[in-house]
Structure formats: structure tokens, C-alpha cells
Design goal:
The protein is an alpha/beta fold. It contains ten helices and 17 strands. The chain folds into two domains: 296 residues, FAD/NAD(P)-binding domain, CATH 3.50.50.60; 79 residues, no CATH class. The radius of gyration is 21 Å and the shape is globular.
Length: 412
């Protein structure tokens, strides 16, 4: 029998309130907070780290994967495109999408997908400025620890940070944690990714007068992207291929397990750096991933679960579209029903938390669809009504007003 302690009962002060609380400051959370704030709602964004961007910035996965279908057609619009442009406002590290930003031909757009590589630090700072300019309250170093409910609605989100434990009264909540943490805490039905996560820990290094990205471990490489800087001509993608760091798999929702995964990745990264230094004394790491590179962990079981077999399928409740970053051709409408579950009336999922099969999860977990679902969730949350029975047409009108294209027949 496991030992345990009983914590003393305590009063938790309600220290703040907001119309929309967004949990998680990755790309989906940033998009949700922007969208809700632009609808005139008071927004609080919780982020457990001390910078925005999640995997894209703190994880150094600095590749803004394609906004197109690979056949020259743009499928991601709205904040998905706005944030791409924001990410390279100051610096383009690689893959400047000239064909898309400077009126290239169809042949140009087919040859070079709508993709780019950005500077993580500038993107995080620029996104923070945008949110602050919109009046969003950002609480860094803050973790959602519990929720209280009134009926089937979340009434408060209990948080912990340096000030201790407190509660925030909410009108609606967007779970953009990447691990469906709020969904889990609120009693929404969730499920775990069956395959777990492989190890990765990307880092930037300086060598021979230049700084470059090392995609150490699992890497997401899109057809139509330019080779990494300095890649050997005989094998231009050698530095960016998926690299096995062993057989360890982890769910992403267990504290001790996450620590073991990060330590193992760090050990292998350290050995990798030392091996390069033996060949090149100028080789030094510049920065390393400061969060675990979790791709798929826990998600909501929504009113609808989308599968990757739905290429080119029309959904009347579509809230935007995405391509498949892994190959050319597919394009998907994303149903609103993937953002909402049956159990909680004022909770929406966004980004990696939406309701998709394991096969579709690999498509929707990356930056462009995270921005698409985050924007839709933020707008839906701004209605401050039961998200399960919300008239999706009202959400769609606001998305269209924000330059989002909803259906494939608007493109093809």
C-alpha cells in the first residue's frame, strides 16, 4: 500500500478574473489570446516558462512548416499567416518564402513551399509585444493546478506560481497546454497517444564563423524546404534527417518520466557536441532546447475525431484548413467539433490538444494548424456561451472577417 499524507484544508484567494483564460503560451495559445483580445475580451494567458512560443521557441523547433498544400495553393490564412510574417519580421534564418511574399508564379510556389525558419528569441519577444499591445495579461512561471466547476462549467482555474496558490475566475477557457492539462483537470474525456514520444533536443551551435541549427533527434522536414546551411552537397539533408537517440519512449504527462527523457537527451547531446569539438575546436553550443520536445501526448476526446483519411473532405463546421507538412497534395478542413468535448460547457481545446486520430495528430501538431485552431478557439471562447451549442456560423463569420478561408472550394 502506498504511503500518503493529508494536506490541510485551505482557503485559496481569487486574485483575478477574466473573460477568457488561455492556458499555454505556445503558438496555439498565442493565437487564441490574440483572437479573443481582438474580440474585445479581457484575456489572461498562463505560461509555465518565462517566454512565449513553446516548442517553436523554447524547444528551438524554429521551422514554420508550410501554409500550402505543396502544389502551389495556400491553405492556411488568418493568424497562421500573420504569425509567420511576424516570426521573420526582423530576421529570416533560412527559407525566405519569396515566391509567396513577392508574387511568384505557380511554378515558383510549387518548387518552394510556403515555409520559413525564424529566430526563436526575436519571435518570442515580438509575440509578447503584440499580446501586451492588445492588453493581454501574461502570467509567466504559472501552472494551472486545478479547476473548480459550477455545474458543467469551469468557474475558476487554480494556479501556482511564486506568489503561491490562487484562483482566477473565468468566463471561458482555451486549453492550449499541448497536453490537454485543463481538459484533464476539468473532467473532460481525454486520451493518450499510443506510440509515445521519441527523444529529441535541438540546439544551435557556432562553427567556422556561423551559427546554425542542429536538429538533434527526431526532426520535421518538409518537402520543398531548402537544405540546412552548410549541408554537404552529396547529401544536402544529412544534417536534418531523423536521428535515432535510442529506444526510450515517453508519454509526456508523467513528471519523473519527463525528467528521465530530458536527462537522457542531454547526455546524448553533450556527447554529440564533444564529438564535433574533437574535429573542430571552434564548435560550441549557442543555445539548447529548454523544454522537452513532446510531440503528441494527451488530447481531448471531442464531439468529432478527425482522421488523415479526410483529405479534401468538406466539413460544414470548418474553422480553417491545413495541408500535410510531410508531403505534397493533401488539404484538410478542420471541424469545429474537434475543439469541444461533451463534458465541459466553457472549455475549448487548441493546437496539439484537439480531437484527432493518432495519424492526423502528426499533421495538426505543428505550427500552422496550431495557429488555425488557436484562432478559432479564441474567437469561439469570446462568445462566453456554451461552446457545445454555439452557432458555428457565428464563429465562421468572425473568422472570415479575420481573413480566414474556411473551405476548399475557396481555393480549388
Amino acid at each position: 500500500m502506498s504511503e500518503f499524507i493529508l494536506e490541510p484544508e485551505r482557503k485559496v484567494p481569487i486574485t483575478d478574473k477574466c473573460d477568457v483564460l488561455v492556458a499555454g503560451g505556445g503558438i496555439a495559445g498565442i493565437a487564441a489570446a490574440i483572437a479573443a483580445a481582438r474580440e474585445g475580451r479581457s484575456v489572461i494567458l498562463l505560461e509555465r516558462e518565462y517566454a512565449l512560443g513553446g516548442m517553436a521557441t523554447l524547444g528551438l523547433v524554429t521551422i514554420y512548416l508550410p501554409l500550402c498544400d505543396g502544389n502551389g495553393n495556400q491553405v492556411v490564412f488568418g493568424l497562421g499567416e500573420e504569425l509567420l510574417k511576424l516570426s521573420i519580421e526582423h530576421v529570416v534564418e533560412a527559407n525566405y518564402p519569396k515566391a509567396w511574399l513577392e508574387g511568384g508564379s505557380l511554378e515558383d510556389r510549387i518548387r518552394e513551399r510556403y515555409i520559413t525558419q525564424f529566430n526563436a528569441h526575436l519571435f518570442a519577444l515580438r509575440a509578447e509585444k503584440l499580446l501586451r499591445d492588445l492588453g493581454v495579461t501574461i502570467l509567466y512561471g504559472t501552472l494551472a493546478a486545478a479547476v473548480t466547476k459550477q455545474g458543467d462549467a469551469i468557474k475558476t482555474v487554480v494556479v501556482e506560481n511564486k506568489s503561491g496558490r490562487s484562483a482566477i475566475e473565468v468566463g471561458a477557457v482555451v486549453d492550449a497546454t499541448g497536453d490537454a492539462d485543463i481538459c484533464h483537470l476539468a473532467g473532460a474525456e481525454t486520451t493518450l497517444h499510443e506510440g509515445g514520444n521519441g527523444l529529441a533536443s535541438w540546439y544551435y551551435y557556432f562553427s567556422q564563423g556561423r551559427v546554425a541549427l542542429k536538429m538533434f533527434g527526431l526532426a520535421d522536414i518538409a518537402p520543398g524546404a531548402a537544405p540546412p546551411p552548410g549541408a554537404p552537397p552529396e547529401d544536402p539533408y544529412a544534417a536534418a534527417k531523423v536521428e535515432s537517440l535510442g529506444t526510450l519512449r515517453f508519454t509526456g504527462v508523467d513528471g519523473a518520466e519527463l525528467s528521465r527523457a530530458v536527462i537522457t537527451a542531454h547526455e546524448k547531446m553533450y556527447a554529440d557536441i564533444l564529438a564535433f569539438r574533437e574535429k573542430d575546436e571552434s564548435f560550441v553550443p549557442v543555445t539548447i532546447s529548454t523544454i522537452p520536445l513532446v510531440r503528441m501526448s494527451r488530447r481531448i476526446v471531442g464531439a468529432y475525431t478527425q482522421d488523415d483519411s479526410e483529405d479534401k473532405r468538406r466539413h460544414e463546421d470548418s474553422i480553417g484548413m491545413t495541408g500535410d507538412w510531410r508531403k505534397r497534395g493533401p488539404a484538410y478542413e478542420i471541424p469545429y467539433r474537434t475543439l469541444v468535448g461533451a463534458q465541459v460547457s466553457n472549455l475549448l481545446a487548441a493546437g496539439r490538444d484537439i480531437s484527432v486520430t493518432d495519424a492526423m495528430w502528426d499533421i495538426t501538431r505543428v505550427i500552422p494548424p496550431c495557429a488555425v485552431t488557436g484562432q478559432a478557439a479564441g474567437i469561439a471562447a469570446s462568445f462566453l456561451s456554451d461552446v457545445r451549442s454555439l452557432d458555428v456560423a457565428d464563429v465562421q463569420k468572425k473568422l472570415q472577417a479575420a481573413q480566414v478561408k474556411l473551405h476548399l472550394d475557396e481555393i480549388y
